[in-house]
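Appendix B. One record, verbatim.
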Amino acid sequence: MIKLTRLNGSVYVLNSDLIETVEATPDTVISTVDGKKYVCKEPVDEVINRIIEFRGGIQIYADTHK
């Protein structure tokens, strides 16, 4: 799950496993595999970095709890 910010400043959490595309239009629009679209303040590169950080954290957790 990654934490993102709506254009109005409210925060939401999105399941990154459901993300199909992330595009700048110029706002960042995230499309999920079920067809829903989410807009966030974070630029595309930041969304990607948060996904990488989240997945890396899962891998570290799994490696330390074998």
